[in-house]
Structure formats: C-alpha cells, structure tokens
Amino acid sequence: MTDLLPLLSSALILGLLGGGHCLGMCGGLMGALTLAIPKEQRSRRFRLLLAYNLGRILSYALAGLLLGLAGWAVANSPVATAMRVLAALLLISMGLYLAGWWSGLTRIEGLGRGLWRHIQPVANRLLPVSSLPRALLLGALWGWLPCGLVYSTLLWAASQGNAADSALLMLAFGLGTWPVLLATGLAAERTSALLRQRSVRVAGGVLVMLFGLWTLPGPHQHWLMGH
Fold first, then answer.
1. pTM (2 decimals)?
2. Domain definitions of the chain by residue range
C-alpha cells in the first residue's frame, strides 16, 4: 500500500488539475441536476449533491476495476507497455487541452457517445430527484458521460497491471474532481471564475503534461522525479 501512495496522490492531483475541464464538461450538467431538485427538497440540496458525486465517483472506480482486469491480464507483456505509452500521450493531450493549446482530445470523447445515447434516456427517467438513492443512481449513470480526462486517467490506471489498484486510483481521481463540481452545484461563482482564469488553466495544463511525460516509460522518469 505504501508503494501505491505516490500514485494515489498523483491521481488525486490529476482530478484537481482537471477541474477546469470538469467545469466545461459537467458544470452545466451539475447546474441542471441542481435545478432538477424539487423545491420541497431544496433544504436537502447539499446531501443530494453529495449523493450525485458519490455515484459518479463509484462509477469511475467500477470502470477502473473492469479495465484494470484487462490491464492485469496483459501485465508484463508488450501490450502493457503500449497501454502505458498511450495513457501518457493522452495525458499530454489533456494538458494541451487544459492550457488551451490544442483541442484534438475532444474527438476521443466521441468514442463514448454511442454508449451515452443508451444511458441518457434511463438517467432522464430519474428526474426530478426526490431521494438520496435516486440521486446516487443518477450520479452513477452520470459517471459514464464521455470525457477525455476520464478516459486518459482510466487508461493510465489500467496500465498499472492490478485491478484493485486501478479501482483505487480512479476513486482517488474522482475524489480530486469532487470539490470543483460540488462547488459548481452550490453556485460557488468565485471557485468557478478562478479555475477559468487563463493562468490557472495554463499552469494546470503544464502540470498534467509533466505528469504525462512522467508516465511515459523511459529513463527521463528519474530526472522528473528528482525535480
């Protein structure tokens, strides 16, 4: 478990740094979910928002477990190395996107739209949200919304070659995204405005790119760790 702590910290930070992307992808949805809470339930809004996000994060962990099983099956093979290289390239692409320098990663999000077309009608039937279990289930469905940041992190987590570790890494990543989306749901305009600032987005993008370079197999990893 001690060996996993640096990776868990990295996953948590990656979720925090991806907050700007989360606002673009899920901020509007979070606002819509908040408005979907009936007036008589507004006093329970915070708990319902927590349930939304808990369901979403559990979906990330489930996806990490499932794809982690595939990573475990090909561990110590050239396929595992290829997965890690692809994950690193996706993370670098995400950094470029967050910094506003290249938006090619958005095309990858189109890969999940076919699945989302089948999930969305089920999610719509859960509205309006009237209970915590309903909010939890809706959040779990929301977790499958196509997202390049999630795909990048998921592939990186799966490349660790251990299904349980992949699930824990995706759980940590999801917890990292929690503050931004919870703040958005509670209409924390200052937090949203801060994360939309150009300097913050560029700094976050550069850090994600460095993380992608660190993920890329090679001797440069030791140099990056030292700096």
1. 0.82
2. 3-188
